[in-house]
Amino acid sequence: MANPRQRNKAKSSRTSKPSLNSKRRMHQKLRKAPPLKGPEVLQDKWDKKKTVFQNYAALGLLPKIPIPQAASSSRSQRVALPSIPVDAQPEEGAPKVGFGRIIRDEEGNVVDIIIDEDPKVAGAAASDIDEDVEARVEAKTEVVRQLEALAATSVPVQRHSSTSERTWLGNLVSKEENRPRLYSALQVPRHSIMFPLF
Hints:
By secondary structure, the protein is mainly α. It contains eight helices and two strands, in the order ααααββαααα.
């Protein structure tokens, strides 16, 4: 025979399980995208209805890399390397810059090594690379310009150590000062191994 409390629970429609509406609300909360953490420039321009990829493309933060639009197998996504035409291939007689040619006699012994390096050409190529590295990429959107300005004004955060950390570091330094094999293994003078206590 059931006790009265159990009988009352069976009669009432109350249950400890969540209702359908509350389940739906819970699932909607799980599906909801988390708030964007970052600079205010991105937060203002971010469209919550778009995907991350679409937002990056709209803000001008995507590189120009061809990405397949449709879902496909990895076999079809493989990039075919361009073939070098026959007339563009280097001649057998002239070695490339930075490479050499080994001349052997009939017995296979090395007789001569010819290294063809043109210092003017190599120096010019290096200077071209330096100029390309130094040249700034033009910002295409206002968001990118604002982010670059924000990055230019950023300063490193100064680290502060607590008193407990300072005492721990002091104990560590005093303990390691008495171990000469540490300094001999590092080949560093003792006075140069000090932790900053600030």
